[in-house]
Specification:
Strand order of the largest sheet: 6-5-1-10-7-4-3-2-9-8
Order of helices and strands: HHHHHEHEEEEEEEEEEEHH
Radius of gyration: 19 Å
Structural class: alpha+beta
Helix content: 25-40%
Distance between the termini: 37 Å
Strand content: 15-25%
Shape: globular
């Protein structure tokens, strides 16, 4: 694992590149700011060299992560309107590539649900617990884990039964705006209408369930880019453990947990649940 000083240095370089992007593509950022109040505030903060680091920096390490969250959040709003070509271009050609994620040519068409998305601060750790529970078949705090699939394979994996947040396992788009695999999303309740299989084991004084659901449509409210949306060796993953880069507050424990799994492990875990619940793809 990299030393803190190396990660902080790398982060500051990446933050500088984000500032350069803000200047070079100012016309696109201006159009985004004009239609999205939350994005306007984010752009204003990052345009000020004296602004303070946000308290939730480990959820949105860089400007592009935060702006993507603002744009995705708009999909779940009741007054949602079509984003337009300028915002699509900004996301697909600049924001995603600026954090090492290339917009794929082929994606699933996602259907946005107007239920909003809650930014859970401990989501990364809960997803690690979820993968541990599937791997070891031991109660690790998740009473129910669900996988949503079509005839081609798993589409999403959902942690816990009390939450509607899940990990997107395929690349998607809403109105042409890319929502990459590895994005945390909120599921619409309609996704639970067609159970295709179930299994369980006895955990810590309770039964823990594995459920599978068949779906033709992916109805979600996208939330935020997770560390696992990035390539396994990417430096961007380390930034999700920086609580405040200006004060060098870094959690090596959090980074170790996040790096204990890669995106491919989510696919492996989802396929294991499909097998345990009797679903054949």
């Amino acid at each position: 694992m990299k030393e803190k000083a190396e990660i902080v240095k790398s982060y500051r370089k990446a933050a500088k590149q984000q500032s350069d992007l803000l200047i070079s593509e100012r016309s696109l950022f201006k159009k985004l700011a004009e239609r999205n109040e939350k994005a306007n505030r984010i752009i204003g903060i990052h345009s000020n060299p004296f602004s303070q680091n946000s308290k939730d920096q480990e959820l949105f390490p860089l400007m592009s992560h935060r702006l993507l969250g603002a744009i995705y959040h708009e999909f779940g709003a009741e007054d949602y309107t079509f984003p337009g070509s300028a915002v699509r271009k900004l996301v697909n050609a600049y924001l995603l590539p600026s954090i090492g994620i290339e917009a794929p040519e082929i994606t699933y068409n996602l259907h946005n649900t107007q239920n909003g998305f809650h930014y859970c601060e401990e989501a990364e750790i809960a997803f690690v617990d979820t993968l541990d529970q599937i791997k070891d078949i031991e109660d690790n705090g998740q009473p129910k884990i669900s996988v949503y699939h079509n005839n081609n394979g798993p589409l999403l994996i959902r942690k816990s039964s009390t939450e509607s947040s899940a990990m997107l396992l395929v690349d998607g788009n809403i109105d042409g705006i890319t929502v990459p695999k590895g994005t945390m999303v909120k599921l619409d309740s309609s996704m639970n209408e067609n159970k295709s299989g179930s299994s369980y084991f006895y955990g810590n004084s309770r039964y823990c369930d594995f459920d599978s659901y068949y779906t033709k449509d992916i109805c979600i409210a996208p939330g935020r880019i997770s560390p696992w949306a990035h390539e396994p060796k990417s430096e961007y993953i380390d930034y999700f453990s920086l609580r405040n880069a200006s004060q060098d507050l870094y959690s090596s424990e959090r980074n170790g947990l996040i790096r204990s799994y890669e995106f491919k492990d989510y696919i492996k875990a989802a396929n294991k649940i499909l097998k345990l619940t009797g679903v054949k793809i």
